[in-house]
Amino acid sequence: MRTKTAKGKNIILTLVMLVLGFMLAFSYNLANKKQPVSTKISDPQFARENELRNELIQQQKENRALQEELFSKQNKVRAMEKDLSKEEKSFFHLAEDAEKYRMYLGKVKVKGKGVIVTLQDGEYDPNNENIHNYLVHDYQVFKVINELYIAGASAVAINGQRIKHDSYIICNGPVITVDGIQFPAPFKISAIGDPNVLTAALTITGGIKDQLVNDNILFSMERNDNIMMDPILGES
């Protein structure tokens, strides 16, 4: 009985050892057949990635070069804009000066604030037989005109006749001739400019007004916010 039991145990042990050996052999063969995962990239893939990387680097270089060129051109444009702005201001001032010269020369119609001075012959004095002692004379008109220009008048006219740089005024008895055109008294001298300055210049103590009054000339002056003067015609 014991012999049979021992034989059974030996058979079981042999089977276990065979199974264990078979498992070890199978595991060994499986381990030898299994290839480890390689982290190395294949040559074609590596070459493509390297090519793309080089293209990206080159593109970045070109972009930087284009940006630098853009910044350079923008700086040039800004410099040109500054120069054009200076030239525009210069041209604007030249245009302003040209317009002023046209105004002084009587080439354009002008309008603005100013004063109107009226000179009239003095009242007849039977005790003064010399009529010239109370008539308005050309030099008295010139005094008023010169004072107005000195005070900053931009345009002056006598009875609507514009005064220019070479105007002449001649006295002929009770009338005066301005550039060949005769005007009887009263003589209205219009001037465009700052009314306050023009008024102060003519009415200063001992000034033009006082001198004319002492010469028996009737002097009056008014401010006007809408004085208009036509251009001088018949000249180039």
Automatic annotation (TrEMBL):
Gene3D superfamilies cross-referenced by the UniProt entry: Protein of unknown function DUF881
Keywords for the protein's UniProt record, in alphabetical order: Coiled coil
Membrane-spanning segments: none
Domain of life: Bacteria
Taxonomic lineage of the native organism: Bacteria, Bacillati, Bacillota, Bacilli, Bacillales
Name under which the protein is recorded: DUF881 domain-containing protein
Keyword Transcription regulation: no
Coiled-coil features, chain-numbered ranges: 49-83
Biological source species: Heyndrickxia camelliae
UniProt similarity note: Belongs to the UPF0749 family.
Annotated signal peptide: none
